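User:
Hi there, any thoughts?
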Amino acid sequence: MVITAPINTALRAIAMLFFVVVVAACSRTPDAMPTGVGNLGPGGGAPGSQQEFLVTVGDRVFFTTDSSALTTEAMATLDKQAAWLNQYQNYRIMIEGHADERGTREYNIALGARRASVVVNYLVSKGVNGQRITSQSFGKERPVAICNDISCWSQNRRAVTVVQ
């Protein structure tokens, strides 16, 4: 038994060393972890990518009830969209017009079309080539929020710029 004690102690030491090496190999420091979307850094997306447009520019503007007039905030977003689209002219875009669920289907299709048209006209006025832009109204058919409350309705009254 005297001979087996040093062997057991050595095996335990080797097992402990192996465990420490495995744990150290599997761990990473926070600085070594990739950040952002697709490991492209914080903010997401390579310059000129659809992801960059979504994250840094913004793809949607919102409207007040029963209106297709652009708000100050909407114009600021559309100014950023126009600058990005004028810089990256290889993309076509679709402007989707949406409405909340109040009102008839026909009324909301027309309202969504007016909202999309206002956005198209604004982008064209800022130098975006109209040949690159199409538009479509979805009316109340594609809500992003569903409830019978102003918090949902306000999210659904929108125009979305889809980069293609």
Summary: The first helix runs from residue 4 to 26.
